[in-house]
Write a structure and sequence with these properties.
This protein is an alpha/beta fold and 370 residues long. The chain has helices spanning 3-16, 52-60, 85-91, 111-118, 130-136, 138-146, 176-187, 196-202, 234-237, 254-262, 279-288, 300-308; strands spanning 29-34, 37-43, 68-73, 96-101, 122-125, 150-158, 162-164, 191-195, 219-223, 244-248, 266-269, 293-296, 314-320, 330-331, 347-355, 359-366. It has a 9-stranded mixed sheet, with helices on both faces. The longest helix is centred in the N-terminal third of the chain and has 14 residues, at 3-16. It is elongated. 42% of the residues are buried.
Length: 370
C-alpha cells in the first residue's frame, strides 16, 4: 500500500463521517501529513461551519508548512460562510495537495487548483479514489449540475417483481438486514417522497431509524391530491416543524387543509394533469429548498408516474428470494407502462449489492437520452 493510498483512505473515511451532517454542502475529509505522520485532520459538517481543510490546518498549526494535504474534494476557491480553502492551504505553506474529486460547483471548478499551482503548490489527483469520492457526493454533484435533488426510486420486491399480494399483506417482503440497509439510504437522503395510497394502506412513519445524527430532519413528502391523509395517522401525529410536507391540489378541501396546518404541517398546492399532483413540480420545489437528494418509497402507481415523468435519476431495488406470481399481485411499477419492448426504460451503471444469505439489491442509474 502506497503512502498516498493510505492517507487518502483516511480522508475518505473522514468524509464519510459527514453523511447526514453536511447538507446542503458536500461531505469532505482532509488529512495533513508531515514526514509520514498525520499532523491534522478534519471532516466538514454544516453546523461546524469550517471546512475540512481549515479544521485540519488548525490542528496542524506550524507543522502544515511543507506538508502534504490529502482532501477528498477539490479545495474551494470562493467565499461563502467561510473563506476559500485554497487560500488557507497556500497561506499555511502546504507543499503538496492530493485530491480525489473535482468540484462541479461553477464557483470552484478548477479555480482552486489553478490558484494553488500558481502559488507553486504541487497538485495532483488520486484517480484511484475518484469514483469512491464522487459516490459520497453524488447528490451534491447532481444538484450542482441541475439545481434539483438526485431522485432515487427505492423498492422491495419478490424475484418476480411483485411488491404486494391481492389479499393479506402482513409481514415483510425483505429481511431485517435488507431493511437496515434501507435506513442507511434514508439517512443519506434529505427528503423521502410517498403517496397517499401508501399512507392509507400501511400507516408508516417513514423516518430515519439509522440511529445516526443528522443536521436536517428527514423531510417526508406526501402526494395527496384531495387531502385524504388521516389526522390520526402516524405521520401526522409525529409531525414536527420541517419534517412533513403534504402536496395537494386546488381540489382539496379548505377545511382539511386548515386542520393540517393547525397541527403545524406545511401544505403546498400544485395542479397537474388530470387533477393530480405532478411529481416534477415537487422535485423542483425540493430543489428550491436545496435538498440534494430525495428517495421515493411508494406504491406501484407513483413509482410508474415518477419513472414515466422522467423524475427518477436512479433506482435501488431490493429482491427477496420469494415468488408471488399471479396477475393480481402488484408489480413495482404499474400504470400503462411501455407498450413496446424497444421503448423500455433503460438502466446503466448497474451495481449488484449482496445481502447475505439470499437477498440482493440492484443499484442503477436511469439512462437519460438527450
Amino acid at each position: 500500500m502506497s503512502v498516498d493510498f493510505e492517507f487518502m483512505l483516511g480522508a475518505i473515511a473522514l468524509a464519510r463521517e459527514g453523511v447526514g451532517l453536511a447538507a446542503p454542502n458536500p461531505v469532505v475529509g482532509c488529512v495533513i501529513v508531515k514526514d509520514n505522520e498525520v499532523v491534522g485532520y478534519g471532516s466538514h459538517t454544516w453546523d461546524g461551519v469550517k471546512h475540512a481543510e481549515v479544521l485540519a490546518l488548525e490542528q496542524a498549526r506550524a507543522l502544515a508548512q511543507g506538508a502534504t494535504a490529502y482532501v477528498t474534494l477539490e479545495p474551494c476557491a470562493h467565499t461563502g460562510r467561510t473563506g476559500p480553502c485554497c487560500d488557507a492551504l497556500i497561506q499555511a505553506g502546504v507543499k503538496r495537495v492530493v485530491y480525489a474529486s473535482s468540484d462541479p460547483n461553477p464557483e470552484v471548478s478548477g479555480e482552486g487548483l489553478r490558484r494553488m499551482r500558481a502559488a507553486s503548490i504541487e497538485v495532483e489527483q488520486a484517480k484511484e479514489f475518484e469514483a469512491e469520492a464522487n459516490k459520497l457526493n453524488e447528490g451534491f454533484f447532481h444538484f450542482m449540475r441541475t439545481r434539483k435533488p438526485l431522485v432515487t426510486l427505492k423498492c422491495a420486491m419478490t424475484l418476480d417483481g411483485k411488491i404486494s399480494a391481492p389479499e393479506d399483506n402482513t409481514g415483510w417482503i425483505t429481511s431485517e438486514r435488507a431493511r437496515a440497509h434501507v435506513q442507511s439510504l434514508r439517512h443519506a437522503s434529505d427528503a423521502l417522497i410517498t403517496a397517499i395510497g401508501t399512507v392509507l394502506a400501511d400507516n408508516p412513519l417513514l423516518t430515519d431509524r439509522s440511529g445516526l445524527p443528522r443536521v436536517r430532519p428527514l423531510l417526508r413528502v406526501v402526494l395527496d391530491s384531495t387531502l385524504r391523509i388521516p389526522l390520526d395517522s402516524k405521520m401526522v401525529q409525529a409531525a414536527e416543524p420541517g419534517n412533513l410536507l403534504v402536496i395537494t391540489t386546488s381540489a382539496a378541501s379548505t377545511e382539511r387543509r386548515q386542520a393540517l396546518e393547525k397541527k403545524g404541517i406545511e401544505v403546498k398546492s400544485f395542479d397537474g394533469r388530470k387533477g393530480r399532483v405532478d411529481i416534477r413540480d415537487v422535485i423542483s420545489l425540493l430543489g428550491e429548498r436545496r435538498c440534494l437528494s430525495a428517495m421515493i418509497e411508494a406504491g406501484s402507481k407513483l413509482n410508474w408516474a415518477a419513472l414515466e415523468a422522467g423524475a427518477v435519476d436512479k433506482v435501488f431495488l431490493y429482491y427477496a428470494p420469494k415468488i408471488l406470481g399471479g396477475l393480481a399481485s402488484l408489480p413495482m411499477a404499474g400504470g400503462t407502462g411501455r407498450l413496446r419492448r424497444m421503448d423500455a426504460i433503460v438502466l446503466e451503471q448497474t451495481t449488484i449489492h449482496s445481502i447475505p444469505p439470499d437477498e440482493f439489491a440492484v443499484e442503477a442509474f436511469i439512462r437519460k437520452d438527450s
